[in-house]
Amino acid sequence: MIRTGLGFTAVAALAAAFTFLSGELLKQIPETPTIHEVLDEEIQFDAAAMTLNSRIMDRHGVLVSDVYSGENRIFTPLHEMPEVAANMFLAVEDRNFYEHRGFDGNGIARALMVNLQAQEIDQGGSTITQQVARNLYLTHEQTYERKLSEILYAYQMEREMSKEDILELYMNSIYFANGVYGFESASQFYFSRPSSELSLAEITFLGAIPNSPSRFDPLVNSEATMERQEVMLERMVSAGILSESQLSEALDEQIVLDLSERTDDFPDYVSYVHHEFEELLIDQENLDREAASERAQELLQQGVIIETALDPTIQNAVTEVINDRFSTSDIQAAASVIDHETNEITAITGGTAYQKFDFHRGWQASRSPGSTIKPLLSFGPYMDETGENKAGSYIDSGPFSKNDYRPRNFGGAEYGVVTLEQAFKQSHNTAAVRMLDKISPETGFSYLRKFDFPTLKEEDIRLPAALGGFSEGMSVNDMTRAYTVFQQKGEYRTPRAIRQVTTLNGDVIVEGESASIRVYSEETADTIRGMMKRTVESGTGTAAHYDTAGYLGGKTGTSDEYHDLWFIGSNDWYTTGIWIGRDQPQSLESQSRDQVHTRLWRNIMQELPTAP
């Protein structure tokens, strides 16, 4: 008893001294402008200190992916949270919140006495302002230096912010266990409802957790959480916030948790959206790739809303068709689907049984495009440059040789003079090379550079490119995007998955809309569109044909040694491209003979709606 008495005396003396010194400090600081100047210079409150959740939405405004940056936090304005929740934390954590200027010497002394009597840490000595400073701008290490910094930060915070702003930061920064930060996030996580719909019992149950998140974690020790909840309610009664009857009613209510799962659907599309976000930052903020990646992460941590063109029905259909066909095989496939009317990517796949952020074959796999490059590099530029832009115009498709380069047609067949349509729908290699030679590879590539082909290199400017001979190749998404030029009368506007990215307040950061550029004449685009139609009717793409009342056309492609199989085509509403191959290239000759690529494209197109 003597030792306990001495302990109380010592604590009381220390608390009194601390209170006196604190009071004197507050008296002195306002009279010393230089101290304020130092604080203004040394203490900066970074608006991005609190990481927030970002959201990716589909074309209907439905959430498809929660993006957490290490902390699950849904920032919510103070006025949108229950007033009783804020009053609860004020009653328990900081009764003098509206009177003090950042720290409370009397409160620290009182907390010391209560904790000593309880033989445990039942009350903290820090004000709500100090807790915000510690949670957002400092560390949690137990040192006198950190405690002094906390007091200085809290004092400066009270100078720069309103009490309501500080309380709002507190309500959004406190930790509720299980990676959940902020009261609204806790409500959504533990009860799957917004905090505005919670009962008093549920509010105080959540309020019990932050005092010791590991000890009062309701998923591990719900009994301890409920015991702490009772303490919270009693404090609110003693503070005059609740009546005894409200306390009894809250304690009688059974707490039923309804845990929410993180929304993270459509991994193929969402992974691509992350990539395209960086691409838009490169274009619209003039950043290099490394800076764009850092900027994207910074924005995602600050909290953004990414509105996309994702059509869940189409995405599911394309994914299912590909998985059903190749899930038991080592063959991979990827596809991209673009809506003509909106010029947007409505679906994109990353490969068979794709997992989020794995290697994405839709945009990362650069492969030889084979003959699918011919309309873009040979036919289109040749028709525009020479004026021979009719399907019935003639081209020599006979044997070709230049500087030891001698391309061969499929099966070694030889032809003579044929129409452009015949050379197109039967995919004559010699005709395609001759066209590029007539206008020059440099001229042909001047057209190709108007598209989004990031892997083009100077060494690619040569005749073999007419047949897909590139140093790296193209992705199926980039090829599909380029093919939309024929459905847009020769003009090209980069199709995007992202419509716009905004802050949580609705301010636009980047937009997906891009300027239109003329690539081919309208006459040339219309002729190629017609030749694609004949290819499906009576050329190399007949296996892609299906009954439809509108337009249907496309182009096949096969790389050397059958390593890659392609088909890119359109109906009245969509342009869809597919690629089939193995990650480690091997021959797909038997699959080519069986027209696996054209049949797969047909199966996908038949699953798409008849109109967007």
UniProtKB/TrEMBL annotation:
UniProt-recorded name of the protein: Transglycosylase domain-containing protein
The enzyme's E.C. designation: 2.4.-.-
Places the protein is found: Cell membrane
Gene3D superfamilies hit by this protein: Biosynthetic peptidoglycan transglycosylase-like, DD-peptidase/beta-lactamase superfamily
Pfam family, one: Transpeptidase
Enzyme class: transferase
Segments crossing the lipid bilayer: none
Alphabetized SUPFAM superfamilies for the sequence: beta-lactamase/transpeptidase-like, Lysozyme-like
Organism whose genome encodes this protein: Bacillus daqingensis
Domain Penicillin-binding protein transpeptidase: 334-578
Matches recorded under InterPro entries: Beta-lactam/transpept-like (IPR012338), Glyco_trans_51 (IPR001264), Glycosyltr_51/Transpeptidase (IPR050396), Lysozyme-like_dom_sf (IPR023346), PBP_transglycosylase (IPR036950), PCN-bd_Tpept (IPR001460)
Domain Glycosyl transferase family: 64-236
Alphabetized UniProt keyword annotations: Carboxypeptidase, Cell membrane, Cell shape, Cell wall biogenesis/degradation, Glycosyltransferase, Hydrolase, Membrane, Multifunctional enzyme, Peptidoglycan synthesis, Protease, Transferase
Subcellular location, principal: membrane
Reactions catalysed, as given in the entry: [GlcNAc-(1->4)-Mur2Ac(oyl-L-Ala-gamma-D-Glu-L-Lys-D-Ala-D-Ala)](n)-di-trans,octa-cis-undecaprenyl diphosphate + beta-D-GlcNAc-(1->4)-Mur2Ac(oyl-L-Ala-gamma-D-Glu-L-Lys-D-Ala-D-Ala)-di-trans,octa-cis-undecaprenyl diphosphate = [GlcNAc-(1->4)-Mur2Ac(oyl-L-Ala-gamma-D-Glu-L-Lys-D-Ala-D-Ala)](n+1)-di-trans,octa-cis-undecaprenyl diphosphate + di-trans,octa-cis-undecaprenyl diphosphate + H(+); Preferential cleavage: (Ac)2-L-Lys-D-Ala-|-D-Ala. Also transpeptidation of peptidyl-alanyl moieties that are N-acyl substituents of D-alanine
MF terms (GO), sorted A to Z: glycosyltransferase activity
Highest taxon listed in the record's lineage: Bacteria
